[in-house]
Amino acid sequence: MHWIVRHAGAGLAALFFATAAQAGFFDDYVSDGLGYESHRTYFVKLEGGATLQKIGGETRIGGSGNSKIDFQDDLDIGDDKSYWTRLDFQPFLRHHLRFTYTPLRFKGSENNVPLTIDGVGFSGEEVDSDFKLDSYAFAYRWDAMYIGERVTLSPIIGAELLDGKIELDNKTGGVTNVSENESFFVPVPTLGLRMEGFPFTRLGFYGEAKGMTIGKKATTWNAEAGFEFHVIDNISVNARYRYSKYDLDVSGFELKSNLSGPYVGLGFRF
Fold first, then answer.
1. What's the rounded mean pLDDT across residues 109-120?
2. Count of Cβ atoms closer than 10 Å to residue 255 Cβ
3. Are 154 and 144 a contacting pair, CB within 8 Å?
């Protein structure tokens, strides 16, 4: 993964400059007669790439009587370098069905952390943490409104499934003497809005925000903005920045966290 992150930028830049002239970066706008850009018309679009995510916030394992645990101050959790994949179907013009999978895993280690979980104190020399968070996001998008012929406004409806597990190991002399873990699986519906514009035939920018609250059990929302450049008709490069916030309270487990970081990748459409 270190190799992917280090070389992704150089590879994408080389691909961009090697094909920009052939791609017709400043080609005249081409329309299909419906005000819909022909280069955005596809049946299946497959995307994937690398991401670097930073986590902040806090969690509590086992109920309100236990210690709140700050990801940075108490656990010194580091950033995660991971990957993402996205599958987008366009069965009809202006209608999109999208599935996105992003697996994240954060690890940390801190000394002499004063924590209490289920009446047990973490008093050893070292606390190792391992936080896994897999996101499965489903969304339907309708390109409902056009501003001119190059900008669309699209409502989004969908759901995000959060599958996570946090493990804490208290060690003395390298030997684990106390271990705690908690797992959760939370589905959260989402509503949102996306704005997308193509100032040039092959270069597009977009921004979207979505989220939802389910009583006191779960609140999620996220916002992202980025660009896409069509190198040739069926291949594109993309980059975006995303910020997500999660507030969960399920089965004795609390999570109040935020994730942020860049995504880069390639797209193929058919």
1. 75
2. 24
3. yes
**For the chain, how far is it from start to end, CA to CA, in angstroms?**
28
Distance CA 5, CA 185 (A): 29
CA–CA separation, 72 and 129 (whole Å):
11
SS3 content of the chain, % helix, strand, coil (to 5): 10, 70, 25
33-84 tens-digit pLDDT: 444 454 467 789 999 999 999 999 999 887 666 788 899 988 999 999 999 9
Top-level class of domain 2-269 = mainly beta
> Residues 206, 82, 105, CA angle at the centre, nearest 5°?
120
Domain ranges of the chain: 2-269
pTM above 0.85, yes or no: no
More confident residue, 63 or 106: 106
Find residue 255's DSSP bridge partners. 59, 248
User: What single-letter amino acid sits at 190?
Assistant: T
